Amino acid sequence: MSFFDKVKDASDKAGKSIQKSYQEQQQKSAELKDIRGAKLDALAVEYMGGYGDGRKANGIITFYQNQTEFSAVMSTKFTIPNSQIKDILVEGKDEVNRRVTVTRLIAVGIFAFALKKKSKDQESYITLELIDGQEVILFVENKAPMALRAKLAKVISSVKQVSASHQVVSAQPQPRVSIADELGKLANLKEQGILTQAEFDTEKAKVLNGRTSI
């Protein structure tokens, strides 16, 4: 193989490698888009605390159709499925102080924000109430609660719909196993010698009477 052929061969391999890498990246982006769903809104916020062990940090909260993400450069990052968010509250400092107890603030490590002496009308707090009882609190500067509430109205509605749908699905009773399946299972146990004839007859009677114990 000549020198020029070797150069061409190396160039072809490099091109294929770049193309493969690009295709893989595109696939990952498409998969992530499917997981997230449509982007609803994004805000610059200060994460105060309340979720896991994430540290207080300035970053961006992004609401997607299926999940909510917080990201800070070189710091706290987390993703919460919208199915786990029971409600989203947008309040002023006084409202938060009245609603959230001091004990609760200390427990989630965000007591400091309640002690701020300066209070502006153009300040808001977003609270993500999770179904497991956690309260994720975010501070938004230069946004009045009423204006921010209006801005996030569609976000709040969408997230609550996802959560409600998830709860309905979770609450649906599991389909009952048919009598034929239960009798077949008992017959197999009897054939394997696990159940005696007497035990088989007893369990069979329970199945037929709707009192299955297996």
What structural class results from the helix and strand content?
Answer: alpha+beta
How are strands sequenced across the largest beta sheet? Answer: 4-3-2-1-7-6-5
How big a fraction of the residues is strand? 15-25%
Q: How many individual domains?
A: 3
Helix run count: 7
CATH fold assignment of the largest domain: PH-domain like
Q: CATH superfamily membership of the largest domain, which one?
A: Pleckstrin-homology domain (PH domain)/Phosphotyrosine-binding domain (PTB)
The CATH architecture of the largest domain is: Roll
Which CATH C-level class of the largest domain is it? Mainly Beta
Mean pLDDT: 80
Main sheet overview: 7 strands, antiparallel
Instruction: Please tell me how large the radius of gyration is.
Output: 28 Å
Which regions contain 5 or more consecutive residues with pLDDT less than 50? Answer: none
What is the approximate shape? flat
How many beta-strand elements? 7
Terminus-to-terminus distance? 73 Å
Summarize, please.
This protein is α+β, with helices and mostly antiparallel strands. Helices cover 46% and strands 24% of the residues.
Features:
SHOCT domain-containing protein; 24% strand; flat; 7-stranded antiparallel β-sheet; SHOCT; 214 residues; 3 domains; alpha+beta; 7 strands; PH-domain like; 7 helices
